[in-house]
Amino acid sequence: VIIQGFQKRVQGGFDFELFWRRAITAAVAAEVMAERVKRKDPNIFVSALLQDIGVLVLFLSDAASFTELLDKKRISGKSLGETEREHFGFDHADVGEHLLKTWNLPEAIVGPIRWHHHLEPHQPHGDAATLLRFADKISALYHGTQSNRKSIEVHEGLKEAYQLSDAQIDALIDQVGVSARQVMEHFQIQPGDMRPFTQIMQEANEELGRLNLTYEQMVLELKQAKQSAEQLAVELKRANDSLRELAFRDELTGLYNHRFFQEVFEAELQKSKRYQHPISLLLLDIDYFKTVNDTYGHLIGDYVLKEVSQVMIRLVRHCDIVARYGGEEFAIVLPETGKVGAHVLAQRVRRGLEQHQFVYDSARFSITASIGLVSTDMAAITIERRALIECSDQALYAAKQNGRNRVEQFRSRS
């Protein structure tokens, strides 16, 4: 049920089928190892299957942010967990633990997931967490790159932890591959290009033999490859950042677009609730904009929209978010700002636009704007995104009705 609920196509650079192939292989590996080293645990399969469920949740919650995090990981060379903690303040193990607890799964399943990336001695659920760590490495052998290096890590680790021989470890890994394919067929998941472990290692060793390079040549080529990979990662991150920025920008004005406004307002609103700090929203509409278009033409109308955007950017604070809401209407999100501070800033924007001279070829004119204001520290306010937008829109309507070129605060009709 869990796999079917989270099974999707490749989306936004995240391969859901690969995720579940790796998860199933890790689950099988954990169960096979537990039996082989006499640490049999009825919960180990489920723990290993769900050990990285937090990764899936983080991606589904915010695909753009998580893709950006993966770019940072590739460039820095740090582990995924370390990069997540730097980026979010928590990692996927924390997320997985929280999710599984809300599902009321027992501590025997959830505990090892919480600790499987930790190497401290005498940690909780030590045996199960260790098995999960090795299971993840064995899964990476079948579904990742650098098989030689990972094979060495698995062999050295299992020898030290459980005193297994090389032959026993190879047989264990081969058994995992066979059993994992059978389990995938049961879940109707394609195994992809998953091959027997002995074949993977044979092909890797044959490739190394064909290279026939000297030690110095190999070091030089590895260094050059590393530099190229790092440069490629930097360029890829720069390109991805540019694409993300373009996706959230209004083409005409360069301001954030309506979609980004909705997302960032929701995020700032949740932050406001969490820390119990006020937040305000301004909706601004250019007065008689249709007259500008009818009098001077649409080219000058576009110029006005761009000029208004630049004036607002100069007048607001660095922490404020200015977006084009639609047409000649704009939105300004004011974090950490109550109704008094928001009213002061709204008046500054209104006066700044009123005093600005618009010059386009031989045309010289002025414009005004009406502003509707709502703050979460107002009485009888529902602190939800849609409700606040509606309240600000009502205040904007009142500003239009009361003569334009003015700021109106939302007033409850109750």
Discrete helix count: 18
Gap from first CA to last CA: 48 Å
Low-confidence stretches: none
Helical content (DSSP H or I, runs of 4+): 55-70%
Task: Summarize the structure in words.
By secondary structure, the protein is an alpha+beta fold. Helix content is 64%, strand content 9%. The protein has helices spanning 2-5, 16-36, 44-49, 53-61, 63-76, 80-88, 92-102, 107-115, 126-143, 147-162, 166-186, 197-211, 215-247, 258-275, 289-296, 298-315, 339-355, 385-401; strands at 279-286, 321-326, 329-335, 358-360, 363-365, 369-375, 407-409. The longest helix has 33 residues, at 215-247. It is elongated and about 85 Å long. The model has no long low-confidence stretch (mean pLDDT 85).
SSE layout and pairing:
Blueprint: H1 2-5, H2 16-36, H3 44-49, H4 53-61, H5 63-76, H6 80-88, H7 92-102, H8 107-115, H9 126-143, H10 147-162, H11 166-186, H12 197-211, H13 215-247, H14 258-275, E1 279-286, H15 289-296, H16 298-315, E2 321-326, E3 329-335, H17 339-355, E4 358-360, E5 363-365, E6 369-375, H18 385-401, E7 407-409
Parallel strand pairs: 6-7
Antiparallel strand pairs: 1-3, 1-6, 2-3, 4-5
Helix pairs in contact: 2-9, 2-11, 4-5, 4-7, 5-6, 5-13, 7-8, 8-9, 9-10, 15-16, 16-17
